[in-house]
Amino acid sequence: MKVKRIDLDDDEMPERILVELSHDEATYLATLLGRQNHNDGEAVLRGGAALGGAVYDGLTGGIFNRFYEDGVDGAAAAMRERG
Known about the structure:
By secondary structure, the chain is of the alpha+beta class. The chain is built from four helices and two strands; from the N terminus they run ββαααα.
């Protein structure tokens, strides 16, 4: 993962962070988030279920479901096949 940009709010606190993920990093993140249920996300952080869902939806809708017939599972299978 590579941090590309950090935008600060008026109090000089991080407001938005732009990161670059490799295919494998994005696959891992989507697989991890996809296996969590609502309670898991909330146990990590209040509001975590919604945040995790947004990241998962972004990865699946924008990347994996477009390029792999089986979505995230297809991307993970491709990673395993590469070794």
